[in-house]
Every structure is written in C-alpha cells, then in structure tokens.
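Chapter review: from sequence to fold.
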Amino acid sequence: MVIYNSIALLGFRGTGKSSVGAVLAQKIGWEFVELDLLIQTKTGQSIAELTKNGTSWDKFRDIESQLIVDSLNKQKLVISCGGGVGVNNQNGNLQQHLLQSYSNCLKILLRANQLVIKERLLQDFRKLDSNHRVSLQGEIETEETFWSNNLQTLNKRQALYEDQTVFKFDSSTDSVKTIADKIITQFKYELLPANSD
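The token string follows.
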C-alpha cells in the first residue's frame, strides 16, 4: 500500500483548491501551501508583474515548476496548485511528469460545473482587489470577456485535467468541509500521520 506524504490539488480556477486545501491540511495536521501565493512571496512580485499582465507566462511557469519540485520534496504538505499546473502551453508536460514522478504524492482533481465556476470567478472579478486573477490572454477585460476567455481555457484544459488524475471530487454542491472529509475518509489509512517523523 502506498503511503502518501503530500497531496496536490489540481483543477481550474474557482474549483475550490485553496479553500479545500486549507481545511484539509488543518484536519490532518499537515502544512498547507498555495502555490500562486508562494510564487509571489518568493519573487516579491505579483502574478501580473511576473507575466507582464498575462502576456508572457514563461518566467512564471519556470518558477512554478521549481516550486513544485521544492514542495514535493517536503513531507506532510497539502499543495493548492495553480490552475495551469500540468495543463499549460509553456511546460505543462514537464509539470505533469514532475507530479507523476512523485509516487508518494496524492494527486486529486477538484472540479465544478461551468455555472458554478462562472459564478465564483465573476464574484472574484467584481472585487476591487481582484488583480490577483490575471487575464490568461493579457488583455483588459469586461465581465463578459473575462468569462469568455476563462471558458475557452477551461474547455481546452478539461480533458488534460482528467487525464493526469485518478481521484476526482466535485465542488459544485458539496461544501469545503464535506470535500475535505470525503478525501480523509477515502484515504485515511494511506496518509502519513501528522505525528510521524
């Protein structure tokens, strides 16, 4: 039986990776890291700055890949991956390979139906401080173009998300706590105990 010493939550923007990850980590006594925030902390730059307002993602993806490796080399860590991890155009194949090479990392896809994702993303878009949601195409967006661009990207990535994960949970109707509890119930004998060395 495989004993998992880390968990990587994958999926599109707005599927609940950060919310579920934080609750899950707290419940099992592990550390939690949100990859996008870690990138910003390590570089001292916002995602908008790193990607030149969404027009150049190469530098961001390189840093992201290195931090994936750094994170997977730790134990008892729940990682909320950015929405492009493993599925982006720059180095998605490399990131997929990195994730698959760590057999002790439990890879979980969080998904939600398009209406739920739309509602969550537009709610975030409307916030005055929503500049952490960078345009994927590097353009100034209205709500309509913001959702249209995200829907186009989601449709391109959906099959790739499905292909790189075996375990999937839907956040469309379940609460954050319910999803965390379902993950714990399914994998309770396969997760490295918090009090182990």
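Two observations follow directly from the output. The chain has a mean pLDDT of 91. The longest helix spans residues 143-164.
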